[in-house]
Amino acid sequence: MRSRTKLPIWLSAAFVIASASAGWANCGDPSHDGQVTADDALIVLRASIGIGHCIRSECDIDGSGKVTASDALAVLKLAVGEDVTINCPSSTTTVPSST
Length: 99
What we know:
Distance between the termini: 55 Å
Largest sheet: 2 strands, antiparallel
Number of strands: 2
Strand content: under 5%
Structural class: mainly alpha
């Protein structure tokens, strides 16, 4: 029989913190590849016009409560290295469109 190994308390706390902030870590990266690219902007744009889906905490870059073409533009600006203010919500609500 295998015995269970207990994690050190500091490692357990780090896991909880990382899990809680996972949505923020993916802000602007709905493809989950670890990089913000033009592909991510396309995902956001498709969701903003109702032909795609994305998680609001990853695609609502400006925190307006909706995924819009402005969010897609902000993601594209991030992808090319421009300064963008990020204000993604912390929820994990899937937003199919801005309507």
